[in-house]
Design goal:
Layout: E1 8-11, E2 17-24, E3 29-33, E4 46-50, E5 54-57, E6 60-67, E7 76-81, E8 88-89, E9 102-104, E10 111-112, E11 134-135, E12 148-151, E13 157-158, E14 171-174, E15 180-181, E16 194-197, E17 204-205, E18 221-230, H1 235-241, E19 246-247, E20 260-267
Parallel strand pairs: 3-6, 4-7, 6-8, 7-9, 8-10, 10-11, 12-14, 13-15, 14-16, 15-17, 16-18, 17-19, 18-20
Antiparallel strand pairs: 1-2, 2-3, 5-6
Amino acid sequence: MFVHAYDFSVKNSDGVNFYYSYVSKDDKTVAFGGQYTIGKTSCPYTGDFEVPSSVVYNDVEYTVTQITNTAFLGSKVTSIIIPNTVTNIGENAFHTCRQLQEIKLPETIVTIGSGAFYSCYSLKSITLPGNLTSIGGMSFYGCSELQTITIPAKVNIIGGSMFNGCTNLQEVNILGNVTNIGSSAFSGCDNLKEITILSQRPPICESNTFLRTSTPSVKYLYSDVTLNVPSTVQPSKIERCKVPFILADMPEVPDASKGLRGVFNQISEPLFSIALNSNS
């Protein structure tokens, strides 16, 4: 059961209560959130929604720097704009926002908590900010309409089940030196067509990282997936391993039948079809 507490609320121009929690009274910063217990009361936020960058309470102006855990959980918002004062998005912040189609994240965002966009069924695309350093596990679990994703260069770990069940995900671009890909991170992404990884060193993959759920009897995944790697990656690594990944539970060179198989293209330039940043 999710329960979220708050320190104060202020009505907006439409008479809807906006809820806030103190981050630092000294610095006059707050986190924007909601107030409800799942199964008892619903999130009051709906439609096209813009998170305020500041709020005045008891004649003191506070800057909004965070989105709290479960802030929009289960809400009926269709689009969200987050101001460039915000640096952190909490765990399960937009959990089961099933009507959410669009969200604009500012370049100031550095962390996204686990389960942040869990089961946002209608979300077709999202641009992750270039300053992002951390994305929690299961962040996009069950986002079945998501088609493309670019992991920014400062992110080093792709958490467990991060894109599990993203059945329409077709293209993944990993721009940085990702060192680990968590368990079941891309499990059930049965329409995946292309993966691009800029890292010179293959990331470690945990169990079932690439597991085709539509054909569970097949132990390897995505034999028709194209993997793009930098031209500077030694061909011997590709030829010997058949896969670009070092499996965490296999100290020896992995067998092709136990990992990703596909068409291996060496790329000479780090060019991608998806824009990394958006300041709008």
